[in-house]
């Protein structure tokens, strides 16, 4: 076995690989970019070497530098993780030439699977089932149209060099064929530099089912069952699970055999995934092979008890596979959800910023094999910690949340519970979206196919709901109790003096206080204001939501432990946690996350009470255009400032008719998340 390896990656997968290496007593070398100097993967490795600037091209994709670092640090092998250099055959060759082991398949196997049409020819010879279609060299338009007519419409055109859904066109009829072919070829040449296409029968509601395969250098090749990754959004996987619901033992054996045949046909070694699309009737067809360890590998680990990274290391070191096919069995059910810093309400726009607070469900990290016995059955693979930043340079994944259950139902319940316990402050996340998804009818009943998210759009993106009175009550109590703490600290020795404290205590008359909260307008949702009237009593408050039908209710504090608060509102017990971040109150209760702006009358004392107030940056980015002029009148909806973030433009528009009193940034300026851009006065 190796004594030292270099991990040519970042984030959760670098941490994941390091965890197994550590368990096996193997030293690790991290590499990092300037943006990642304080990243978790740097902290968990034994040593770390800077590669260069943040851009992947200048750091994680610099194969030459990475090989030089491996040589200089005495690493014997390089683990590429996924993405970056993991499927780069030239890099694998270069490792070999430098006397280093590339922990992955032979470069020849990567090349054989790199071209879709060439791979399909190979698979055909190996008797791996293919979607009826044409994948030959003849690219004559008349000829291809004849092939499409023979296959029968709808037909799917795919760029041979493509992948991940790029360069695909559905053709509904022979009449539409020519235009679709021309447009597919245009996209193929501009995206991949190769306009070769293939034509296939288009399957209407396919499932994405993939088989984990493993081969060693001793001629052994086995599979570790399937994963169902049908729940995707724009070819990005969202949920993955193993085993696939509805899979029969016969079909599992047939798919496993086909996958092993596919791997053997290209002389595969190491961890690989053979991707199939399956019809609702269960028939399945080879799509492509991923020649790397995949993001979703943990669900396979959870049901087999195998540590796939350990297997990769053993195979790369020349050892035989730890298990034979007949020694593997499926134990229970596992589901993975990808937790992202993104905003589902804003078209899943990545959310860049700092993880100010990260509260995770009770979980273990990498305790492989032990997870089925773990009371919570929850594993979290993360590359970021509280206080870390999600930068615009890399994939904005926060963590993979993986649950195990004795059956799918239990796994699903644990997933919903774990998602409800996840607390993220400082960034938008897809947590609530994931929770709606796993609890929705379609996923709960395993009515799976690649169109699940689009088909259930209305249920997954419900109209914004007004904040629950329980959430407002928690925010109010958190606010009042924090003032009490502050005032007690200030008054010191005079703590017993009612006059010195902000307890709201008044002689002879009850103290009535009006608190004003509003929904988080930064989420891009219509925002609602809430007037909360709190009347101080001896041992609690009367809580009255102004403008609501409900009559005032007695509010009492039951317990408080840091951010965790329990109150009684009327007859209802309400539990939750409240995290304050400046003017924002993040209330986590009932599995939901409410972001409430507290309109602090003290914070803006002295400022002009401009209605409409300020217009703020929806995310960190650059000002690319300023259309507003100081002192000019504008109409509601007029574009005032255009910002660029994540390669997309965002227009900041006037919320009402009014006057721009000041423009606070110029073109080219970098702006922080939430920064006021303009001073605006409503007419
Ligand atoms: C298909 C298909 C329907 N029929 N091929 C998309 C990415 C690439 N790996 C293969 N893809 C598809 N190929 C035929 N003949 C539908 C898809 C497809 C898809 C496949 C797997 C997972 C998600 C998907 C989402 C849309 C389309």
Automatic annotation (TrEMBL):
Residues 120-317 form the ATP-grasp domain. Pfam families: Biotin_carb_C (PF02785), Biotin_carb_N (PF00289), Biotin_lipoyl (PF00364), BT_MCC_alpha (PF21139), CPSase_L_D2 (PF02786). Residues 1-458 form the Biotin carboxylation domain. Residues 608-681 form the Lipoyl-binding domain. SUPFAM superfamilies: Glutathione synthetase ATP-binding domain-like, PreATP-grasp domain, Rudiment single hybrid motif, Single hybrid motif. Gene3D superfamilies: 2.40.50.100, 3.30.700.40, 3.40.50.20, ATP-grasp fold, A domain, ATP-grasp fold, B domain. PROSITE patterns: ATP_GRASP (PS50975), BC (PS50979), BIOTIN (PS00188), BIOTINYL_LIPOYL (PS50968), CPSASE_1 (PS00866), CPSASE_2 (PS00867). This is Acetyl-CoA carboxylase biotin carboxylase subunit.
């Amino acid at each position: 076995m190796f004594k030292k390896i270099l991990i040519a990656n970042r984030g959760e997968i670098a941490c994941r690989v390091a965890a197994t290496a550590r368990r096996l007593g193997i030293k690790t070398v991290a590499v990092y970019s300037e943006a990642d100097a304080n990243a978790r993967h740097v902290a968990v490795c034994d040593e770390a070497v800077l590669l260069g600037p943040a851009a992947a091209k200048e750091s994680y994709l610099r194969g030459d530098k990475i090989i030089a670092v491996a040589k200089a640090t005495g690493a014997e092998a390089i683990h590429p993780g996924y993405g970056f250099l993991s499927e780069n055959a030239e890099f694998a060759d270069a490792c070999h030439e430098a006397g280093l082991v590339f922990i992955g398949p032979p470069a020849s196997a990567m090349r054989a699977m790199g071209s879709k049409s060439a791979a399909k020819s190979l698979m055909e010879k190996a008797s791996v089932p293919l979607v009826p279609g044409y994948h030959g060299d003849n690219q004559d338009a008349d000829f291809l149209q004849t092939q499409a007519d023979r296959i029968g419409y709808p037909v799917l055109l795919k760029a041979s060099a493509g992948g991940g859904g790029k360069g695909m066109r559905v053709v509904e009829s022979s009449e539409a064929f020519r235009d679709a072919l021309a447009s597919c070829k245009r996209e193929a040449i501009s995206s991949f530099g190769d306009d070769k296409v293939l034509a296939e029968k288009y399957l209407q509601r396919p499932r994405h089912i993939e088989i984990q395969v493993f081969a060693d250098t001793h001629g052994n090749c086995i599979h570790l069952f399937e994963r169902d990754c049908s729940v995707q959004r724009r070819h990005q996987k969202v949920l993955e699970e193993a085993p696939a619901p509805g899979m029969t033992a016969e079909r599992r054996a047939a798919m496993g055999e086909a996958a092993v045949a596919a791997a053997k046909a290209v002389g595969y070694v190491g961890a690989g995934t053979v991707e199939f699309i399956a019809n609702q009737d269960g028939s399945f067809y080879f799509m492509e092979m991923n020649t790397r360890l995949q993001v979703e590998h943990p669900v396979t680990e959870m049901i087999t008890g195998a540590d796939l990274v350990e297997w990769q290391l053993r195979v790369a070191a020349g050892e035989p596979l730890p298990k034979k096919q007949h020694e593997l069995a499926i134990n229970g059910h596992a589901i993975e959800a990808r937790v992202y810093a993104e905003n589902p309400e804003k078209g899943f726009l990545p959310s860049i910023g700092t993880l100010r607070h990260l509260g995770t469900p009770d979980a273990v990290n990498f305790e492989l094999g032990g997870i089925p016995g773990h009371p919570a059955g929850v594993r979290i693979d993360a590359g970021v910690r509280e206080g870390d930043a999600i930068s615009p340079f890399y994939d904005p994944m926060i963590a993979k949340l993986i649950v195990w259950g004795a059956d799918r139902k239990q796994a699903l319940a644990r997933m919903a519970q774990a998602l409800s316990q996840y607390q993220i402050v400082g960034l938008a996340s897809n947590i609530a979206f994931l929770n709606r998804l796993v609890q929705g009818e379609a996923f709960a009943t395993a009515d799976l196919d690649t169109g699940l998210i689009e088909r259930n759009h209305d249920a997954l993106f419900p109209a914004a709901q007004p904040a629950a009175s329980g959430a407002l009550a928690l925010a109010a109590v958190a606010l009042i109790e924090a003032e009490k703490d502050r005032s007690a600290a200030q008054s010191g020795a005079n703590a017993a003096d009612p006059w010195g404290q902000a307890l709201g205590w008044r002689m002879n008359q009850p103290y009535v206080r009006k608190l004003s909260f509003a929904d988080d307008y930064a989420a891009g949702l219509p925002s609602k204001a809430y007037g909360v009237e709190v009347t101080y009593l001896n041992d609690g408050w009367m809580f009255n939501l102004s403008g609501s039908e409900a009559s005032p209710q007695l509010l009492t504090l039951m317990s408080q432990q840091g951010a965790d608060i329990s109150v009684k509102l009327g007859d209802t017990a309400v539990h939750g946690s409240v995290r304050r971040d400046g003017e924002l109150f993040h209330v986590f209760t009932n599995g939901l996350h409410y972001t409430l702006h507290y309109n602090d009358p003290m914070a803006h004392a002295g400022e002009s009470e401009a209605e409409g107030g300020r217009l703020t940056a929806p995310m960190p980015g650059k000002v690319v255009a300023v259309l507003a002029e100081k002192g000019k009148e504008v109409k509601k909806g007029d574009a005032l400032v255009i910002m660029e973030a994540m390669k997309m433009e965002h227009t900041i528009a006037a919320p009402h008719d009014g006057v721009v009193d000041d423009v606070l940034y110029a073109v080219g300026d970098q702006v922080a998340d939430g920064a006021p851009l303009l001073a605006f006065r409503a007419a």
